[in-house]
Design a protein that fits this description.
- Pathway: Antibiotic biosynthesis; vancomycin biosynthesis.
- Belongs to the cytochrome P450 family.
- GO terms for molecular function: heme binding; iron ion binding; monooxygenase activity; oxidoreductase activity, acting on paired donors, with incorporation or reduction of molecular oxygen.
- The protein is of the alpha+beta class.
- It has a single domain, classed as Orthogonal Bundle (Cytochrome p450).
- The chain contains 19 helices and 11 strands.
- The strands form 3 sheets. The protein has a 6-stranded mixed sheet with strand order 1-2-3-9-6-4.
- Strand 2 and strand 3 form a beta hairpin.
- Helix 15 packs across helix 19.
- The radius of gyration is 21 Å and the shape is globular.
- The protein binds protoporphyrin IX containing FE (HEM).
């Protein structure tokens, strides 16, 4: 692999993410590539380089989705990222980012998350009840998806009957990248959320969206576009990644029976185990995009002004310069340091909720089943066709 000229990445970037990530990182921790979607970006795969980029304001998020879509669809095409999505936190720089993030953080507090614990446990138990006594279970459909979807939609106040439609749009948006199909799903989601916000204004409920509608009545009120943008990142961020934590963690444990036995024997290891699942099968391959506001030299590489830059959290989390024996699952590894929740001003706002959901999901699963066996053949394991997400499409288990 040479370091000059963009390297065109194929399907194996997604299907064989760890070995391709390692090859890229070992050859050049920052280099130009063409993503499988055809998008040229500067890809960052080294740990220190990833942190440096995520913390450097010369890598901007301002209106980056618009820019990327314009580039992907041609300059004349109108971007599907209308005003409604312009205020997405991952599309903003300070000071707008700071103001909006503060408003959301005020509602989405540690206390809010803690107050959800009994409900998350109840949802996990209901899902596990339905899995009892079956010969085989497809984990994503039965547990890994419905758990975080129910948590985040209940929290925000999305009616239960809309879950299926809502989930389908979300998948198309996340997996579709900069395609017209993804644009259409984005518009539908925006239309849906407009009606939902209007309904919450009219008739507020006991949910986060209703609180956000009325948040900052003292003059700092969120506009409709801001509300919609915030709802989208919370809703999509809220389950598309957590599902991968659950399925990726179960896969890692099933491949490492010694670690599974250790976790069963000492449940106090659960919090460090969750951090290790996040590092070992990182739920996001790539960060959201950034672009350089000026020519930037970083780790000896010169990126011209206006270059799109993406960080591979997945590759950075297996950088041997930072983590000893990075491919090994070790649930006793000292906590901290992994980049699964990002780094810098866009650090995941939902990390406390994701961690709690993870602890409950794995805790309840181990309580219920003494024996967890993967029935899916290794060659049948497919990863979602997405450069954003590192998530299994399906995982069939026998649970006893
Ligand atoms: C941002 C990962 C769960 C809401 C991020 C980022 C990452 C991430 C890597 C930074 C992206 C970037 O800098 O480009 C994860 C993972 C999760 C998870 C791995 C689960 C295991 C959640 C949940 C929520 C959430 C449950 C909401 C309830 C957000 C929001 C942002 C974000 C709002 C944007 C923050 C900002 O731009 O200031 N997440 N996330 N995430 N996440 Fe999460």
């Amino acid at each position: 692999m040479t370091t000059t000229g963009p390297l065109v990445l194929g399907d194996d970037f997604v299907q064989d993410a760890h070995s391709v990530g390692a090859k890229l990182r070992d050859s050049a921790p920052i280099r130009p590539v063409v993503l499988p979607s055809g998008m040229p970006v500067w890809l960052v795969t080294g740990y220190e380089e990833a942190r440096a980029v995520a913390a450097d304001p010369r890598f901007s998020s301002h209106r980056v989705y618009d820019r990327m879509h314009r580039m992907a669809l041609g300059d004349d095409e109108e971007s599907p990222f209308s005003e409604d999505f312009a205020m997405n936190l991952l599309n903003l720089d300070p000071p707008d980012h700071t103001r909006l993030r503060k408003l959301v953080a005020r509602t989405f507090t540690g206390r809010t998350v803690e107050s959800l614990r009994p409900r998350v446990e109840q949802i996990a138990d209901e899902l596990l009840d339905a899995m009892m006594g079956r010969d085989s279970v497809e984990l994503l459909e039965s547990y890994a998806y419905p758990l975080p979807i129910r948590v985040i939609t209940e929290l925000l106040g999305v009616p239960f009957e809309d879950h299926d439609e809502f989930t389908a749009w979300s998948k198309t948006m996340v997996d579709g990248g900069a395609t017209e199909e993804a644009g259409a799903a984005t518009m539908r989601m925006a239309g849906y959320l407009h009606s939902l916000v209007a309904a919450k204004r009219e008739n507020p409920g006991d949910d986060l969206l209703s609180q956000l509608v009325h948040e900052g009545e003292d003059g700092e009120r969120l506009s409709s576009s801001e509300l919609i943008a915030v709802s989208v990142v919370l809703l999509i961020g809220g389950f598309e990644t957590t599902v991968n934590l659950i399925s990726g963690g179960v896969l890692s444990l099933s491949r490492n029976p010694g670690q599974l036995a250790l976790l069963r024997a000492d449940r106090s290891l659960m919090p460090t185990a969750i951090e290790e699942f996040l590092r070992h099968e990182t739920p996001n391959i790539l960060s959201s995009p950034r672009y350089t506001t000026e020519e930037v030299e970083i780790a000896g590489v010169v990126i011209p002004a206006g270059g799109f830059v993406m960080v591979s959290w997945l590759a950075a989390n297996r950088d041997p310069a930072r983590f000893a024996a990075p491919d090994r699952l070790d649930i006793t590894r000292p906590r901290g340091g992994h980049l699964a929740f990002g780094h810098g001003i866009h650090f995941c706002l939902g990390a406390p909720l994701a961690r709690m959901e993870g602890e409950i999901a794995f805790g309840r699963l181990l309580d219920r089943f003494a024996d967890i066996e993967v029935l899916s053949a290794v060659e049948d394991l497919r990863w979602r066709d997405s450069t954003a997400m590192h998530g299994l499409e399906s995982l069939v288990l026998r649970l006893r």
